[in-house]
Amino acid sequence: MWGGRFSGKPAELMQAINVSIGFDKRLSSQDLAGSRAHAAMLRTTGVISSEDEAAIQAGLETIAGEIADGTFPFRDEFEDIHMNVEARLRELIGPAAGRLHTARSRNDQVALDFRMWVREACDRTHGQIRALQKALIAKAEAHADAVMPGFTHLQPAQPVTFGHHLMAYVEMFGRDAARFADARARMNESPLGAAALAGSPFPIDRAQTAKALGFDRPTANSLDSVADRDFALESLAAATICATHLSRLAEEIVIWMTPQFGFIRLSDAFTTGSSIMPQKKNPDAAELVRAKVGRLLGSFTQLTVVMKGLPLTYSKDMQEDKVPTFEAFDALELSLLAMAGMVADLEPNREKMAAAAGAGYSTATDLADWLVRELNLPFRDAHHVTGAAVKKAEELGVGLEGVPLSDLQALDARITASIYDVLTPEASVASRRSYGGTAPDQVRAQIKRWKEVLA
Ligand code: ARG
I need a labelling partner for 441 at 20 to 30 A (CA). Which of 26, 68, 93, 127 fits? Predict the structure, then answer.
């Protein structure tokens, strides 16, 4: 490509470190789309003739076919996807191929291709998050009233419902989807036409190519256009946060699956056995989803370090932007799909969850609230009385509902038998009707709202 200036060949090691076709072939479809829009614009602005444009378009069409059917010759000696396409175009249509690169550089070309790839990845991911949310909502709806322990410090805290717990993740993934949508909106400007870094002396129409490629507008600064990779960084940050949420849910699935908890069952579809212990059923998919966040954060860190301190504008360092980004989205998408599968697959054991919901004096706060409501005790005093009631229950080896009324009345003579009404997990969750609370009717209201959002 630059034979005019060079008389020697690159060293083999130079080619080895320089070549990117092995990974940037994933930009093929974006590269072709960019070239087609660029060629059409060069023709409408009179920079190239209609005949040359027609030949270029036909050649690019042939190349698209070759890539689709696996016959396109990806060659290391042409370094990257941009030069592979151009070299092949020359073989197919001859000298007219040389006009395609007018008013364009690989710098704006790769910025464009990569931006379009990340934009598509954000859109795909957004769709996969929505699918996961729908799976969570369906499960939440089926179990909106199934009581389970709510935890803080992984200690039983207050009873909640399984539907409420799942809907907490619907909120998290909702913010993740919004982050991808925001990133997409911000990145949706076309760098094509920034050329090498300074813009072009040709009468190009950047608005035309921007529109043809689905961008809202062209980027406003040619230096920034070829130097910017923060669209990728922002997407990787969003991806890392999303993977963090996935790992938390994955961890809960792992815990819930243990025989000690026994809150859920996963079918054979998302578990594996052991080669030595015949009784085992392991939540491998959940464990792998839990682990993937390491890759995501690794990718984000990798690209941040590549970009840090780079002077404007393009430096070859930036070729190292693609592998971490591809890997991150591959890992995230697989995790989202696997998690949606697991959520649809899992079956809660309602009896086991209900039994655990009442354990650990989880309705102690309800007892204290009863004292506040019925006896007008200050909450701090009620807290103290309740602590004494828990101590008594512990001595007697019973739950709070098993402490005889006489023992409760020894703590405060005004306590009546109606206090037992609030001591079941069902009564506890039903009472928490504040907006966003765990009462089944509140949970159902949020399910309804989300269904409307996702409709
Ligand atoms: N393969 C290069 C990359 O991925 C394309 C841009 C090359 N530009 C250049 N001036 N060498 O970044």
Answer: 127
User: In Å, what is the CA distance from 322 to each residue of 117, 175, 179?
Assistant: 10, 25, 21
Q: Provide the residue count of the chain.
A: 455
Predicted local distance difference test score (pLDDT) of residue 79: 96
Count Cβ atoms below 10 Å from residue 300 Cβ, excluding itself: 24
Q: Are 247 and 293 in contact (CB under 8 A)?
A: yes
Residue environment code for 123-158, b if the CB has 16+ CB neighbours within 10 A, otherwise e: eebbebbbbbbbbbbebbbebbbbbbbbbeeeebeb
Q: How far is the CA of 65 from the centre of ligand 1 (A)?
A: 25
Give the Å distance between the CA of 132 and the centre of ligand 1.
Answer: 37
The token duo for 375 is 């006896």
Q: Which residues contact 315 (CB under 8 A, 6 or more apart)?
A: none
- Positive or negative: CA dihedral 170, 176, 180, 185: positive
Report the alpha-carbon distance of residue 21 to residue 123 in Å, rounded: 25
Cα 412 to Cα 414: distance, rounded to the nearest angstrom: 6
DSSP state of 10: P
pTM (2 d.p.) = 0.94
Q: Which of 77, 81, 316 to mutate to test the pocket of ligand 1 (most atoms within 8 A of CB)?
A: 316
Q: The tokens of 437 are what? A: 């609370």
- DSSP state letter for 126: H
Q: In whole angstroms, give the CA distance from residue 232 to residue 212.
A: 22
Residue 270, H or E segment: none
Residue 75, both tokens: 């060659």
Tell me the residue type at 168: A
Pocket of ligand 1 (CB under 6 A): 20, 24, 80, 106-107, 110, 314, 316, 318-319
Which two structure tokens, joined as six digits, stand for 197? Answer: 């870094």
Q: How many CB atoms lie within 10 A of CB 309?
A: 7
Strand partners, 22: none
Interval 52-106: pLDDT, tens: 999 999 999 999 999 999 999 999 999 999 999 999 999 999 999 999 999 999 9
Residue 111, amino acid: A
| Protein residue with least CA distance to atom 4, ligand 1 | 319
E runs forming strands in 248-356 = 264-265, 347-348
Low-confidence ranges of the chain (pLDDT < 70): 2
